[in-house]
Design brief:
The chain has about 325 residues and is an alpha/beta fold. It contains ten helices and 15 strands. The strands form three sheets. It has a seven-stranded mixed β-sheet with strand order 2-4-3-7-14-8-15, with helices on both faces. Strands 1-11-10-12-9-13 form a six-stranded mixed β-sheet, with helices on both faces. A two-stranded antiparallel sheet has the order 5-6. Strand 10, helix 6 and strand 11 form a beta-alpha-beta unit. The longest helix is centred in the middle third of the chain and has 23 residues, at about 210-230. The chain is globular, with a radius of gyration of 20 Å. The two termini are about 40 Å apart.
Length: about 325
């Protein structure tokens, strides 16, 4: 199985960005994350995914100084706001979700801090790293009020003694889709097509991405162990992401890969919100997997009332409207 290097994407972006000697450092290729900053990046144009009220001087310079999975003003959140750890599967919905939350709970305006890295990594931070993160030369602690992700991961947080069982809240569901470049130039129409010799595939890393297990199950459902091993086996063809399957669209747009399996909602976000040159290929229900998204209050939450307010909000029409925009469906099963 091939190892994916985030550096590949960064190097490709860097090469594209600095091939022209007179390039303004703020004028990056249009598909450079954070996509919420299009069409221009400057010291006075802030990311739409940052809910902070006062943003100060913006030193975002992709791909050198660019942090897209930490949203908001941590100081304000720590004081009397809300800190949410949510698996990065809906990083693109953060802006709309927080705005809707602040409308219903105006006391939290500008005081929500959300981290959207993979749910497995977030659980590691809670259980082993004392809620502390290091990015480059910066280290900070963000003690969470809420842990959210797939229902399996949230139940593990409860089982391990870090989340409150009585607060377990499932709220939406999602399914898988194949993401390809706009126009589907490789004519990929099924999971079986991913095994073709002419198709370069990028997949989430099974070591820390829950979605990888779902993809493996879908491949086996559709093409047996042979298809699963062709992609994920010891000699499988998949390029693996290093941190999160948000690398998948970037790899496809940079032509490092031709296709990857992601959540349906991520394809919707790329097309409807970011207008990137990508599209989705549906996976039939008989081969697909339905994921349940859930959240729970973290034990010892610094802001227990805020945590309760967030959990209540996730089931409201206002929150579900945001999720439905990206193709999520309301959870209708038992709690």
């Amino acid at each position: 199985m091939k190892k994916a290097l985030l550096a590949l994407s960064v190097m490709a972006l860097g090469a594209a960005a600095f091939a022209t000697t007179d390039l303004n450092p703020y004028e990056m290729p249009p598909h450079t994350p954070p996509w919420s900053r299009k069409p221009v990046v400057s010291p006075d144009v802030h990311s739409a995914n940052n809910p902070a009220v006062y943003k100060g001087f913006d030193f975002t310079i992709p791909p050198v100084d660019n942090v897209v999975d930490f949203h908001g003003d941590l100081n304000a959140a720590n004081k009397d706001g809300l800190v949410v750890y949510v698996g990065g599967n809906y990083y693109f919905a953060v802006t709309r979700l927080i705005k809707a939350f602040e409308k219903e709970y105006p006391q939290y305006k500008g005081k929500v801090f959300i981290i959207t890295i993979p749910p497995g990594k977030l659980l590691q931070a809670i259980e082993h790293y004392h809620d502390t993160f290091t990015i480059g030369d910066m280290t900070f602690t963000a003690k969470p009020d809420i842990y959210a992700g797939g229902a399996f991961g949230v139940k593990k947080c409860i089982k391990d003694g870090f989340c409150e069982a009585s607060t377990f809240t499932p709220y939406v569901t999602n399914t898988l889709a194949i993401e390809v470049y706009k126009g589907n130039p490789k004519h990929i129409h099924s999971l079986q097509d991913l095994a073709r010799k002419d198709v370069k595939v990028i997949m989430p890393n099974p070591k820390f991405e829950g979605i990888a297990r779902r993809i493996e199950a879908a491949l086996e459902k559709c093409g047996g162990k042979k298809l699963k091993d062709a992609i994920f086996g010891p000699h499988g063809k998949a390029i693996l992401t290093e941190i999160h399957h948000r690398q998948t669209p970037l790899a496809i747009m940079e032509h490092i890969a031709d296709a990857g399996v992601v959540w349906h909602s991520e394809v919707e976000a790329q097309m409807k919100q970011y207008h990137n040159p990508l599209e989705g290929v549906p996976i039939p229900a008989k081969c697909n997997y339905e994921a349940i998204y859930a959240a729970a209050e973290v034990k010892g939450a610094p802001h227990p009332q805020a945590a309760k307010d967030w959990l209540h909000f996730l089931k409201t029409p206002a929150a579900l409207k945001v999720f439905e925009f990206y193709g999520f469906k309301p959870y209708e099963g038992k709690r």
